[in-house]
Specification:
8 strands, six-stranded mixed β-sheet, Spore Coat Polysaccharide Biosynthesis Protein SpsA, Chain A, alpha/beta, 8 helices
């Protein structure tokens, strides 16, 4: 499908304070022959996921950018189907996999909500992280809405949840890509899922989120359910 869509791609590996095992894997990909895409490696010393993602976005050369953490996996059709959805959209959009399958220390399958189907209540955005960290959007969208810098020592996070709220508040539509899967590794100890279970959301624009909910009620392009007054 990549060839049918006329797509070219590069794999941009951003290593933030990588350990020896990660560096070995990065080097393996960098030296792998006969790949159908280019591989570039950037090493940074930031200690913060959002800042590392911003570096990747600023370095990426393509029209579209897909973000996937190094220990997660996605279905083989995810990137091409997401780009197809984005190209057809008449509104600025962020695409996510339709399903999340957790593996490792916990096994769980859940379907991701989509604003295109009217299944999102803005109160849910504050209670739960509705969309996984993996997303695909136009480069211009990520550049216009960089991830907030959230120092883990301050106890704020997760950065992708905050980014989801910030972009919805700005009027960006989040949609799921039919027939695609995100495979999320859950560790028994350590890892970002354990750190984020103890984190708090930083200050957000509640008034702005409420205004978006009001203006989107009954809209044909996207749906964000309102709170009854």
């Amino acid at each position: 499908m990549r060839d049918e869509l006329g797509l070219t791609a590069e794999l941009l590996l951003v290593g933030d304070r990588v350990d020896a095992a990660t560096r070995v894997e990065v080097t393996r990909w960098e030296s792998m022959p006969n790949l159908p895409f280019a591989v570039r490696v950037i090493e940074v010393d930031l200690g913060e996921s959002g800042a590392a993602r911003n570096v990747g976005v600023s370095t990426a050369a393509g029209e579209f950018v897909a973000l996937v953490d190094g220990d997660d996996l996605v279905s083989v059709n995810y990137f091409a189907e997401a780009i197809t959805l984005l190209r057809r959209s008449e509104v600025e959009m962020v695409a996510h996999p339709q399903y999340v399958l957790s593996f490792g220390a916990r096994s769980l399958l859940w379907e991701v909500d989509s604003m295109l189907g009217g299944h999102v209540d803005y109160r849910d955005l504050l209670r739960h992280n509705l969309w996984p960290s993996s997303s695909v959007a136009r480069h211009a969208t990520y550049a216009r809405f960089p991830f907030r810098s959230l120092d883990p020592e301050l106890g704020y996070g997760p950065e992708d949840w905050v980014w989801n709220i910030d972009t919805v508040t700005a009027g960006i539509t989040h949609a799921s890509v039919p027939g695609t899967v995100f495979f999320y590794r859950v560790r028994s100890a350590g890892g970002v899922n354990h750190r984020h279970s103890r984190s708090l959301l930083p200050p957000i624009d509640l008034a702005g989120l409420g205004r978006v909910a009001k203006c989107c009620c009954g809209a044909g392009g996207r749906s964000l359910r309102c709170v009854a007054r």
